[in-house]
Amino acid sequence: MLKTNIAGVDLQSCVYNASGVNCTTKDELLELSHSSSGAVVSKSCTLEYREGNPKPRYFENDTCSINSTGLANFGYKYYGDIELEKPYFVSVCGLSEENNMTMLKYLDNKLNICCIELNLSCPNIIGKSQVGYDFETMGNFLRKVNEIGLQHKLGLKLPPYFDMVHFNQASEIINENKIDFLTCINSLGNGIVIDTDTDRVGIKPKRGFGGIGGSVVKSIALSNVRKFYELTDCDIVGCGGVVNGRDVYDHILCGASAVQIGTQLKKEGVSVFDRINDELGEVMKSRGYSELSQFRGQLNEYE
Ligand code: DHB
């Protein structure tokens, strides 16, 4: 009932983890693989091991999470060597174009990986702007990636866009290159969350500025899923603000083929997938649907 397909890869459930949450160590990746998650995505990797930003670098309250992890990861070869029993996506987030090229070429030869999710939207690297917000850099970079002629399916993790012109500009670049799927959205960059017990910012890095996730970002996630569903031929993976099965259903209504869970996975652990799969199944049954294709993209609008 919840089966789906992204970029030609079959998933038994359309629900899986968002990159960054509980997916940095091999043990965490194995735990995801043994859960009822439909797939597994790794933490975004860089060329070298990174310790990441000083802690505390994650904080949450009832409506949102904030993180500034600073790309703490074990380096791309670590993720390239892991074998899982589920479709395994490696997220790549190089600190330079050259680093990205090196990692993409290496990971492309790894048959244990099904797809690469190229992250154009990390908001937490001190002194670096997001490629996804710099359309000239993004266009030039994706042309070079395209020229490699990757064997693996390639997706992009996009930042949230808020302006209709930006949706059009990003889509134009995407449509000029061979991109198989888009993951919409990464966290909302550079928010502040206050710890109301102490009147202090929730996290230490960047004086409290970090990427926002959780239920507050759902509306922006849905609009981004909808726009890129309309403007590109890519499969869309929704990400943002999913707490329950109805939230997944809403992402699919907007056009998502699969949906990732970030903040709620961090709060609840991998049993979140059992609960959300069940809840999504119930919403579908209540409407007489037995497959995602019966309602994907079928969002109603006023006449
Ligand atoms: C980090 C945060 C992100 O949102 C991302 O896309 C990649 C890395 C981080 O701070 O580690």
Description:
It is globular and about 50 Å long. The chain has an eight-stranded parallel sheet with strand order 3-16-15-10-9-8-7-4. Helix 4 packs parallel to helix 5. It is built from nine helices and 16 strands. With 303 residues, it is α/β, with parallel strands linked by helices. A hairpin with a 4-residue loop joins strand 5 and strand 6. The model has no long low-confidence stretch (mean pLDDT 97). Bound molecules: 3,4-dihydroxybenzoic acid.
Give the beta-strand count: 16
Outline the low-pLDDT stretches.
Answer: none
Helix content: 25-40%
Query: Looking across the biggest beta sheet, what order are the strands in?
Result: 3-16-15-10-9-8-7-4
- What's the end-to-end separation, in Å? 31 Å
Main sheet properties: 8 strands, parallel
Enumerate the distinct ligands: 3,4-dihydroxybenzoic acid
**Outline, from the CA principal axes?**
globular
Structural class assignment: alpha/beta
Strand content: 15-25%
Q: List the total number of helices.
A: 9
Average pLDDT:
97
Order of helices and strands: EEEHEEEHEHEHEHEEEEEHEHEHH
Tell me the radius of gyration. Answer: 18 Å
